[in-house]
Amino acid sequence: MTVGEAPAARRTVLDAVVDDLRTIRELGLARLHEAEPAALREVLAARSAAPAGTAPVPDDGAADAAAIEEALRRAAGSLDSAQWRTAALATFGFLPGTRELTGKERRERAAAAFERTVDHFRKEPERLLVRQVAQALLENRAPAPAAGRSAPDGRTGAVVCGPLVPARAGRHPVATAFPHGTVTVTLHVTPIELLEGVDVLVSSENVYFEMSKTFRRTVSGSLRRAGATKDAGGRIVDDVIARQLGAWSAHTGAPAPPVAAGTVAVTQPGELSARGVRRIFHAAVAVPSATGDGYETAPEAVAAAVRRVFELAGAERRSGRVRLRSVALPLLGAGRGGLDARTSAETILGALEAVLAADPDWSVHLVTRNPLSARAVLDALAARRP
After folding, report:
1. What is the C-alpha to C-alpha distance for residues 95 and 90, in angstroms, rounded to an integer?
2. Half-sphere exposure at residue 252, Cβ-oriented, CA atoms within 13 angstroms
3. Where in the sequence is the signal peptide annotated (predicted)?
4. Which of 123, 130, 51, 50 is nearest to 90 (CA)?
5. Do 364 and 329 meet the contact criterion of CB atoms below 8 Å apart?
């Protein structure tokens, strides 16, 4: 078996490396010495004579654990998006604090990077993730740059970067450069339903305006649950926000066909009014996937929704009905919506350019409960600094 064979044989090599990586994923880096990754050893041995910048292999042609670990770290760090890189690094134990975790605990960290449940992540994204890492190993890719933490490797010209470091929980005000000037954008690393004193909370919805179930940890499900009226036993007696969203759809004639991606509906906040929330704006950005599994989100839909949110909020403020000044946006389309956190953040910031140029007095908040997604947001904000 050699690297660089005909496509049919290459697939056989790829499948063998995938099997090796699944074993390594289960064992973890701390028990890498227990693995017997025969296919991966042969791949690295065949590469050992090439000046590709990877860790050397022993003279007997069998790669030791250190060489395998270095090659795997490089491959996991080379995936195209920050979300996939973070999940890959968590899966194999390269993120800080994950090396000694069990396979189950590392899977939970990787699923969190996708904002998916562990069961959903295990059934499909994890299999695809491991296969992508195997492909990267065969192609001997260099790690992709991580914004703000990359440096050129003088020997190979490749970019060497560390793993994505989770952002700490809490509130992060960031002075952010826009074409018209500098604006403070505040990132909250917390569940959106726990925010206080923000006038508008934006919920990410699908184009059918069908809110998530109240037991889901999605933005939509969390806001639906937090806004509902409950009895003394905690049971929902009035599903306020979902009921009002249904009424909005019925009033506009949108219950049967989907609305256009980027459409925004407005409801009252229900019980969230106790936290100072005045409105919930529902941004329809997620389109059911053609394969029937999950959703797809176009960045253009996210940008249109952001512009519409501020257009509606501005109109309501000018009408004198309620003085809306602060808006909290989740990472629209990220997680189950199909976008990675960095792409969502950059799209939102791009849409805010015209919004804030027209009215720089808006107080803008970005929010995610995922500390890894939060780091991607901080990187996107930092990339805008002069």
Report:
1. 5
2. 18
3. none
4. 130
5. yes
Which residues contact residue 104 at a Cβ distance below 8 angstroms, ignoring those fewer than 6 apart? none
- Strand partners of residue 352: none
The single residue listed with the structure tokens 């992060």 is: 172
- Cβ atoms 295, 206 nearer than 8 A: yes
pTM of the model: 0.64
Longest CA span, the chain: 79
**Domain limits, the chain:** 7-161, 170-382
CA distances from 295 to 2, 191, 196, 386 (A): 38, 22, 30, 36
Q: Identify each DSSP E strand in 226-317 by its residue range.
A: 229-230, 236-238, 264-267, 279-288, 295-296
Model pLDDT, residue 386 = 60
pLDDT digits (tens, 9 = 90+) for 305-339: 999 999 999 999 998 888 899 999 999 998 778 78
> Which tens digit of pLDDT belongs to each residue from 202-259?
999 999 999 999 988 889 999 999 999 999 999 999 999 999 999 988 877 655 568 9
The mean pLDDT value of the chain amounts to: 83
Cα gap 71→141, rounded to integer Å: 9
242 token code pair = 């979902």
Two tokens at 346? 């950059």
Other C-beta atoms closer than 10 Å to the C-beta of 303 total: 20
Asked if 308 and 345 touch (Cβ cutoff 8 Å), the reply is: no
CA distance 120 to 85: 18
Q: Are strands 200-206 and 279-288 parallel, antiparallel or unpaired?
A: parallel
Of the chain, the percentage scoring pLDDT greater than 70 comes to 83
Q: Compute CA 285 distance to the chain's CA centroid, rounded to the nearest angstrom.
A: 15
Q: How far apart are CA 87 and CA 62, in angstroms?
A: 28
Helix H or strand E segment including 171:
strand 170-178
pLDDT tens by residue, 287-301: 987 766 678 899 999
